[in-house]
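In the laboratory, one determines a bound structure by crystallizing the protein with its ligand and collecting diffraction data. In a computational setting the workflow is compressed into a single prediction: the sequence and the ligand go in, and a structural description comes out. We illustrate the idea with D-glutamic acid.
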Amino acid sequence: MKYKALVATLLLTLSAGAFSATKLPHIVILATGGTIAGSAASSTQTTGYKAGALGVDTLINAVPALKQVANVTGEQVANIGSENMTSDVILKLSDRVNQLLAQDDVDGVVITHGTDTLDETPYFLNLTVKSNKPVVFTASMRPATAISADGPMNLLEAVTVAADPDAKGRGVMVVLNDRIGAARFVTKTNATTLDTFKAPEEGYLGVIVGGKPEFETRVEKIHTLRSVFDVRQVKTLPQVVIIYGYQDDPEYMYDAAIAHHAAGIIYAGTGAGSVSVRSAAGIEKAEKAGIVVVRASRTGSGVVPVDSQQPGLVSDSLNPAKARILLMTALTQTKNPELIQQYFHTY
Ligand code: DGL
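The predicted complex, in structure-token form:
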């Protein structure tokens, strides 16, 4: 009897030892709002609900399976629809992520966010996070109260990716709908469907199959640890506005940008960034006023070619919203047009 009890104790101690040897990674979830924290009056309501209604603890408690993949803790950074994200909030978020990832006891960060500007904030962190530990954004298209809400699975998959040793050094990622996208490339392509995040030219970094991330590709563009941008001491980002190109686009949009002391303008141009005579006059005026102008494309994909006959710099393959993020970030350290153009080709 005594012998049996001794063996049982020994086995228990050994299994506890084995358990602590496979300690789960510590992933911090930073919540900022969006539909993933959205609440509607009925389970069939998938539009017209309140985004950013639930707190981070509610999101975590709704997914008990998180405990099997990571030791998860949560913080509320904001609770807003992402159309109300501001450069002040993204600066604060970048700062907090840098602080957390500098801690030895944090292995990765997951950020919950609205989908509407989910091509912007992740790209800002891709440029400004000083760590190769995983940073993964996630979101949802259906509110938490809907039938077949996509938020809980997206959160579980985002934490699974952040906890995976293979996720290190790949730049900031966006996980939704079983896909792992690169912050540099993905954008929202459909107003309401679940499979909305795509990178039409570059595709995904990988997929999640049976609860396991499968990485397929790496991003060539510079990000995170190799990025020259450091905004840890920056208190406000320079003002950069986007002016859309279209038939009859009026020159007075540029006058407004000049009058409001914009530091930069992204011209969301037609086709490959072509410029109407009215916009050409506006851009010339803006450049004379010291504003840096970058031509992007409103088409949704493709590279804007360098063309010495056209005014301004070019955004490479960055869509107008992402180009604005890069120009704001670049202007925190230089106004040199050659250097800024170089950044657009390499980040
Ligand atoms: N207004 C939206 C936002 O927070 C809700 C859309 C969403 O999160 O899917 O971006």
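The pocket of D-glutamic acid is lined by residues 33-35, 51, 81-83, 114-116, 139, 141 (CB under 6 Å). Keep in mind that any predicted model is a hypothesis to be tested, not a measurement.
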